[in-house]
Amino acid sequence: MALLSNYSGVLYEAGCDEAGRGCLAGPVFAAAVILPPDFYHPDLNDSKQISEKSRQGLRLVIEKEAVAFSVAKMDAPDIDKYNILWASIRTMHKALESLRVRPEHIIVDGNRFMPYRKVTFDCIVQGDALYASIAAASILAKTYRDDYMIRLHKKHRQYHWDTNKGYPTEQHREAIVNFGITKYHRRSFQLYPLPEQLNLFED
Fold first, then answer.
1. Residue 1: which pLDDT band, with cuts at 50, 70 and 90?
2. Phi/psi of residue 4, nearest 5 degrees
3. Comma-separated ranges of CATH 3.30.420.10 domains in the chain
4. Residues 6+ apart with CB under 8 A from 116
5. 121 to 87, 117, 163: CA distances (angstroms)
6. Which of 2, 20, 22, 116 is the residue whose CA sits 20 to 30 A from 46?
7. Contact of 75 with 27, CB cutoff 8 Å
8. Torsions phi, psi of 134, nearest 5?
9. At what angle do helices 52-65 and 132-153 cross, to 10 degrees?
10. 201 pLDDT band (50/70/90 cuts)?
11. Would residue 126 be called left, alpha or beta, if left means φ above 0 and alpha means ψ between -120 and 50 degrees?
């Protein structure tokens, strides 16, 4: 089934989504995308539903054909300072702020958002599987974040961020127990199985 092209009926409708909200390490990334009304790609879908190769190919198409797109990130210290929900929404705001075309309406994946300037918005649960612009945003956020975590992996290979991308896999948790944590880890998250027995923080 083809994804829907528009929710509000206005021309410059921006889709927003984030990646990395449930990770133990690394930033949260968010993207905002405004697509042309006639945009169509048969493979476009929620980034979690397609392969890494397809995501990378779609990223090139989206960046080439979008009316406007932007990607932003927020690092672990700011996630810890506030909270992951606030950080995710604020990162979407940062992406919207950097669009070269001002959106007339915003559609967001999920059920939580905070007003951006005076632009109207709607939250759509599972919107990344329904609307093309949100799916496009999910792909950009995911691919940019994955690329970032692969670069971090080269500095900290023991955590295997090239494969787990900072998510709480058993392998990642075992590495935290064995090697401690880095400045890229989110200290406000439950990082390891028995925190009261461990003193693993690094600067």
1. low
2. -75, 145
3. 13-153
4. 92, 93, 96, 106
5. 18, 11, 35
6. 116
7. yes
8. -70, -40
9. 120
10. very low
11. left
Residue carrying structure tokens 């590495």: 175
Closest C-alpha among 36, 40, 98, 103 to residue 66? 36
Model pLDDT for residues 76-107, shown as the tens digit of each residue: 999 999 899 999 999 999 999 999 999 999 99
CA distances from 48 to 3, 54, 129, 142 (A): 15, 11, 10, 9
- Indicate the class that CATH gives domain 13-153: alpha beta
